[in-house]
Amino acid sequence: MIETGSDYKSGFIAIIGRPNVGKSTFLNRVVGQKIAIMSDKPQTTRNKVQGVLTRNDAQMVFLDTPGIHKPKHRLGDFMMRVAQNALREVDIVLFVVNATEGRGKGDDFIIEKLKSTKTPVFLIINKIDEVTPDEMLPIIDSYKEAYPFKEVFPISALYGNNVDQLLQKLTEYLPVGPQFYPADQVTDHPERFIIAEFIREKALQLTREEVPHSLTTVIEQIKQEKEDGPIHVMAAIVVERDSQKGIIIGKRGSMLKEIGTRAREDIEQLLGSKVYLELWVKVQKDWRNRQTHLRDYGYREDEY
Predict the structure, then answer these.
(1) What beta strand segments (E) does the chain contain?
(2) Are both 27 and 72 inside the same structural domain?
(3) Which of 53, 58, 238, 279 is 20 to 30 A from residue 203's alpha carbon, by CA?
């Protein structure tokens, strides 16, 4: 633990925004390592991913929430409740938008949700590396007309532009408080959760069309026979239809092998050990609309 004085600050910060604006990229940048999966597919984040940044003067606990959207199934309903519940339990809200896109209906939908909160809200305009400075002013003005943001920060989560300045300003807004987590802890999620997410990320990156939204990953077992031996991870990729199972497996198992190869690299980096990853695919029809399956696969509302 860091020695904390009477002026040490700590608090919880929600990261909200439409799908695919770079919330997970920002979280990984802030904590200094990969804990949230990234994909160009919308609605990649399904649970609330909690990242911890500990500094000499403050500890910030970031909640990366699912992208706010109009749900189409029970899983979507769950994701929206996770995102909206986060607004009620934090000290600061970061509303992340994409600098390459104008303010749209999805952004206005979120702004309407924000109007009922008394929590300070920062506007974070991400991907400034993809626009010119002249293009930024109209974007800022458009959002400021819609909501009285406490602070506005144009950043690049990918390259780190302006992120340090944002962290310093966040520290100013945080209340005086204790250090909630050990200084070397970067997330409160168990390793099983992160391993499952790494596998899902690779499947998202490698598949197309309807498959990404229809799959989830379940860790069946993690074991290590010898103290210095490899860690054996057994996991199932769950899809909704037989045709999707065929896509995930690929010709002669080529797709499943590639998913495993890519995921194993991230898992080995996370665990600091050699990993033997065993993957298989199973079909669970319409799992996103079945409450029992959602709970079995880790989407538990009582945890949020």
Answers:
(1) 9-17, 49-54, 58-64, 92-98, 121-126, 151-154, 216-223, 231-239, 275-283
(2) yes
(3) 53
Order of strands, sheet of 92-98, starting from the edge strand that comes earlier in the sequence: 49-54, 58-64, 9-17, 92-98, 121-126, 151-154
Asked if residues 120 and 131 have their Cβ atoms less than 8 Å apart, the reply is: no
Report whether 236 contacts 220 (CB < 8 A). yes
Residues 128, 147: Cα–Cα separation, whole Å? 21
Count of CA atoms in the C-beta half-sphere (13 A) of 71? 16
Say how far apart CA 89 and CA 10 lie, in whole Å. Answer: 14
The pTM for the full model equals 0.65
Total Cβ atoms within 10 A of residue 80: 18
List average pLDDT for each run of 10 residues in the chain, which is 304 residues long.
74 87 89 66 51 92 68 56 68 94 89 88 96 92 96 95 96 93 79 84 78 76 82 89 87 93 89 89 75 53 44
What does the block give as tokens for 215? 């799959």
Domain encompassing residue 38: 9-173
Number of domains into which the chain is organized: 2
The whole-angstrom separation of Cα 148 and Cα 139 is 14
